[in-house]
From TrEMBL, chains A, B, C, D:
Protein name listed in UniProt: NAD(P)-binding protein
Gene3D superfamilies listed in its UniProt record: NAD(P)-binding Rossmann-like Domain
Matching PANTHER family: OXIDOREDUCTASE, SHORT CHAIN DEHYDROGENASE/REDUCTASE FAMILY (AFU_ORTHOLOGUE AFUA_5G14000), OXIDOREDUCTASE, SHORT CHAIN DEHYDROGENASE_REDUCTASE FAMILY (AFU_ORTHOLOGUE AFUA_5G14000)
Organism encoding this protein: Alternaria panax
InterPro entries per the UniProt record, alphabetical: NAD(P)-bd_dom_sf, SDR_fam
Length: 248, 248, 248, 248
């Protein structure tokens, strides 16, 4: 019998928030591949994981580019072997958007938002589902494809269309994939992050509120890990996550 | 007092089904502009309307192109005057898609589906909302921006992702616009067409079922007209439409 | 051939708002039966309709009582003949509720809210669906069973549980009945009234807002009539209705 | 400083499925109170837990009776002290229902279904929220109130109204309580069990399918435990749970 494939986890959209926490969490179980457009988004994290006894490989890539993702897969195979398989793939990227009156938003903003949030999720899934399917034979937990959503994945407020259009499309993608790949053993899930995440960029937000008014990125990572460990008798497609004191 | 602007209705995605019926219905109240990629999609309809005492102007345009839409607006102003206003704009276009296993669908299919269904809806709205806002002063009924959705706007089945991603994005757009432009007096609505429409292309479908197993395109047009005539005390954002015997 | 049955419309929950407007609207097409617990809720309306050339029969009944409804049906048959049929039945009743902290609401409030909004809708449907089914043979428009919902039919806010529990149950009822009786030709619909209706009781509300900040009860009645006239190729199960300037 | 209150978990609707698994799971952390109408529903389970080093107290009660629940609380205080507090309360009861044509279902079936699924959930919450609030001071994890839902909590199929009306009402209750009590630190959650649970009663169902075609009750219990351990920065209100191969 040939040795089982090496199992890895891939995280796209690694920054100082959810992506990093998820990568850290999964790195204690699998080598992790960190995808981000700019190397500075993953370099220190990769270093941290590698120096803590884990294994991390950072790859600079644009998830809205099919060719970029193909090169990322190539880089992964070079590092982990041509028969590399995935236990988890987490899509945590979002396109840039503007919260402005609709008629003041350039068409380009909508285009680039859709190209990351919607098309990016599609291309990411097409790139890594083959590795997840290969993971079926060796992964202890059902190979998992997890998408990070937001309040704007289920509610489309005024002036939020350049964000919500992509996020609704991504949610549609995740639901369709859950229905197609669930029966094949892949766990596809979607998380609605409904609140402000406590990261450096949001340090000054909600300052008059108690600290627990923000979501913990590490706790989101725990929730993603919980999704990953659900047995195939009990798959959850969607969870919502919000601070206890959040108004919704 | 200067004379009030000329009020028109614009229908994008005119083919032999819903688009044509909507154009016919609205043409008994307003001159109608028929947008489609290929002239053969609107030529006979324009002729029919013009010879029946109505007024129709067909313009060949690609709704996924900002420049194309700008030229269409130019053509409209040339025909109806620079101060033309709109009483209604109906977005009835959808991108091509494939009902196939996800990993067999080319990235290009997703791209072109998103570029028509999602980006097309965005660009159409940016092109014609200024005309609708101008219509506020003279339109008897609240100027209306109506989007045609589908079952796949609210449910994302296996193998349907190349359709549903764009349709969910379009629904998000319509909800955000309803919230932003409703208070300005524009009625934004979304119709979920949940079933097969009775058009030449579907003549052979559901042949073992009674004729009322398919939606009537003319009845859809009546429903759009009803949406258009709702007063601003009573706006409906969303309706679903299906044959009585449809399973859902 | 025996003469076709007499077609009537039944409205439960007739007060000075939606119920009265719906009854007035439908009374120009059908004799109407007005159901309310207290005669003073329908007396002046019945008089008005009867003196305007319409025909109205008020019956004092409690929709949460099976026996009460059976007696109402008896009264209807006495008036309109044993073979009376219905073209429309509108359930517009709601139980009393309290907007208060959950632990301060007496169990009795929940019980009576459920017994009107939920059980009342069930008993009303069981009482009048037989008449609607009989209406199939003679009604020009598909016999219609319409339920009045509210914001609280789709959103369950803090302190609103004594209202929303009954309203969600009623929405569930309407969806199930739409799926069961639609194929039999009965049009079952549910309207989400999302805002304040302009009635005597709300005269003092939203006084700093323009008059169109409130829903018009007469316009709701028009919408119900539109639902009633949809052909069986194009049934709408659910509409939402709100003032253009409503935040949602 | 007075000693902290004794923390217990309460499970209503203990039978051979989810209720028993949840009770077993939580019994390794807390003494558990087992509520069921008939003693035979909890007797062997209580014995099993007590003989395994845990602590279980079975109480025969009808959740649709306010007085019955008051007596249960009394019994709990007698056993665990007047200052007893709760770390978790799980409402897992459903009323009886009939899957039949609507007009063939006796009114009594609807009444008893609503009185358990809807009113039962309300009365259970009113009885045990005070104990959960008392648990705030001593519980390691946020005191949790968890409701068991079903496919019929979000979809109301033909002939299912006698089940879905109660389940939609229960979901409304859970959403309202999540919004009211979340800010007070109580974690209110709702689980949509979307499939057949593998219990003795369903042994013969889906026999031509692989064993993982059914939900595992023990895995549901793990999911409920995971909900219970979420920190108050990251509360999930709703999860869906279904076998990987389930069609939905």
């Amino acid at each position: 019998m040939p040795p089982l494939s090496k199992l890895i986890a891939i995280v796209a959209g690694v920054g100082p928030g959810t992506g990093a926490s998820v990568a850290r969490k999964f790195s204690s179980h699998y080598p992790v591949v960190l995808l981000a457009r700019k190397p500075e988004s993953y370099e220190s994290l990769a270093e941290e994981i590698n120096s803590n006894g884990g294994k991390a490989l950072g790859i600079s890539t644009d998830v809205s580019s099919k060719e970029g993702l193909a090169k990322a897969v190539e880089g992964i195979k070079k590092e982990f072997g041509a028969d590399v398989a995935a236990a988890a793939a987490v899509f945590n990227a979002s396109g840039p958007f503007l919260r402005k009156p609709f008629l003041e938003i350039p068409a380009e903003t909508f285009e680039s938002s859709l190209s990351v949030s919607a098309l990016g999720g599609i291309l990411f899934s097409q790139a890594f589902l083959p590795l997840l399917l290969k993971g079926l034979e060796s992964s202890e937990h059902p190979p998992s494809l997890i998408f990070t959503g937001a309040t704007a994945s289920v509610k489309s407020n005024a002036q939020m269309a350049s964000f919500s259009t992509g996020k609704w499309a991504l949610r549609a993608l995740s639901q369709s994939l859950a229905r197609e790949f669930g029966p094949q053993g892949i766990h596809v899930a979607h998380a609605i992050i409904d609140g402000v995440i406590d990261i450096p960029r949001t340090r000054e937000w909600l300052k008059d509120m108690p600290p627990e008014a923000k979501l913990s990125a590490d706790a989101i990572a725990n929730d993603y890990w919980w999704l990953h460990t659900q047995p195939k008798t009990n798959f959850t497609w969607e969870i919502d996550l919000r601070p206890a004191i959040e108004k919704w």
